[in-house]
Every structure is written in structure tokens, then in C-alpha cells.
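Aim 2 progress update. The chain analyzed this quarter is reproduced below.
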Amino acid sequence: MPRIIIDTDPGVDDAIAILMALAAPSLELAGLTVVGGNVPHASCLRNALALLEYAGREDVPVFRGSSRPLSGKFPYSRRVHGRSGLSRPLPEPTVRPQPEGAVDFLATQLSARPGEMTLVALGPLTNLARLERQSPGSLSRAAALVIMGGAVDCPGNFTPHAEFNFYSDPRAAHEVLTCGVPLTLVDLGATRQVAIDREAAAGLHSDHPLGRLAAQLTQDWFEVDDRRERFHFHDPLALAAALEPAVITTRQATLAVETGGAEAGGAEAGASRVTASGGPVALADKVNVERLFALVGGWLGWGG
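Predicted C-alpha cells:
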């Protein structure tokens, strides 16, 4: 049975990825480690706990991670995710995060089960960079490392060059990409191949409770702004690639993130473009969109 940890900053598309993981057959979700990013850390933490309680999966532990990047402040993406981070309100969770911090949890899990745990990073890479700083070599003990982030050979979505996750902590992204650990990077060039328009979203329905919530989150995301035309499956694609690698093809690349000495969220952080240099990366290239939506639909029971 695959074991995964999701490092996340929920976030609408993070939430859908988490629901996919909860619905996927024969998968053990060992924990969620939370980082600030799409919204402040307190809101990300609340959203992670609320999603698990909604799903009746209070057994999945949640761990507090970084509320700030390695330097500077997170810029947040309230324009996309709203003030709370979720397009549909969920009840206030009664469960609480674990007393252990995210970095300590990751270090313990990867050390105790080398080669067994897949790590999927859906937000800024601050927790992972701090893990490597505290316990060097920890990431090399993962069975696989899949990251959603970066804009390689394509425009950014937060500045002309920068994707939001890497923009939020360019120094952390650089340190993780160049630490020498083999990883799969699902960047904007891949995730922009996978989207759903307003009409298709309106037609989604499911008899699965997690599928219903995922459909509602997608539909309500469109309702927030009449100008929205397409919802991109950024984080769901990374989660799917971790569980079913055949949904993407990859090409080998050596990558680094230009930090330009900038702090996260600063005026110069647009320099956080991805460039050639650094360590071994399998960069997502082509997406088998039909196969991806068949997986998502199967796990979440989506019809439309």
C-alpha cells in the first residue's frame, strides 16, 4: 500500500488534491504538513483540519509547519483563493494539529521508513528546505518526491517569470531543487494542459461525499468572479502524478531557481524564474489529460 505525506497550503486546488488522496483506493495518507502560502498559515491549518473532519478522517494527523518563508513574508494569493482559502465554507474543525512540528515529523517518518514514503509538495517549499537544513539527507530517504511549482520555459502566473509557489519562497525552492535528490517537478507548463471551464464545472455531480465537495469547491470558485473562465488542476495533477506516474511523461533537466538575493514577496522576487543548473529533476512534459480525468472521476465519482 503506497504511503504518502502531503505538504500543503490549502487553497482550493490543494483541497481537491487532498480529497483525491482520501478517496484514492489502497493509499495510506500518513499525514498533512502545513505551510503558509495561498493564505496565512493559520487559515491553511484550519482548512486542512476542516477537510479531514468533513471526510471523517480525523485519524490523519496534521502538523504545523512554516508560517514565514526563509526570508521575508509570504505574499498570499487571496485574489485566487479568497480570504479563507476555500471557495465553500466548512464547519470549524474540532480536531487539533499534532504537538510535533512539521519538520520534526518529516524527519522522523523519512528516517524510520527509508524508501517507503512518497512526499508530495503542493505549496511553497519552506518546510522541505528547513528539513534539509535541520536533517541533511532527509529528502533522499523518500521513495519519491513530487513538487508542484515553477514555470520552466513558460510564463509565470504571479509575475511574468514566476510561478506562485516558487515566488513565495524562491530561496527554499532553489535549495530543494539543487540538493541533489531526484524529484519530479510538475510546473505550469504541465498544469496548464489540464483545466475545466465554467460550463463543464457546472455539470459536475457525484454520489461520493468527497466528490460532491470537490465539485462544489470547483463550482463555487467560478461563482466568486464572473470573469473566471478556466480552473486549472495544478495540485491535483501533481498528486495524480505521484500516485499514477503514467499520467505524465517527463524529460530530465537540471534546474535551479534564480533568487536574485530577493526576499519572498519583495519587489525583486519576480527574479524567481527557473533556470538550468543544479540537480537531477524529472520535469513534467506532456499530460495524458484523458487518463488524468478518468482517474479523478473514478476516485471522486464525478459525472458530468
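Residues 266-271 have pLDDT under 50 and may be disordered. The longest strand covers residues 248-257. These observations will guide the mutagenesis experiments scheduled for the next reporting period.
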